[in-house]
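Troubleshooting: if your tokenizer reports a length mismatch, compare your output against this known-good record of 130 residues.
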Amino acid sequence: MSPDTPANPQKSRRGLIRIWHAVLISLDGFRAGWKEPAFRQEVLFAVFMLPAAFWVGSNWVETALLAATIVLVLIVELLNSGIEAAVDRIGPEWHSFSKSAKDMGSAAVLLSILLCGGVWLAALWQRFAT
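Known-good structure output:
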């Protein structure tokens, strides 16, 4: 490899080829995420809740907010799975830094789920209780 050749071939790609490869890499990320049971459960939840957002939301802003909170849970779960994979790659032995990284990723997932639940409860309350 010459000194001018980037270590990552993605860096030398331009235009539509770069976009195409980025899409393929993202699809690989979805496949990796699908191996995680929590991600599969949240995708199943999203399959039902995303269409429901159009029914519960009374305008496009409410609908977008309801949908965004669901997608946010999926995003945070994928990031948490990435953190766990990176930590596990370093080694299987217990370390306080590894535990902290995994615990904080898990806490982020919990916060995103609580946010989603709170927004949905408020929207449902507004729609049906008032």
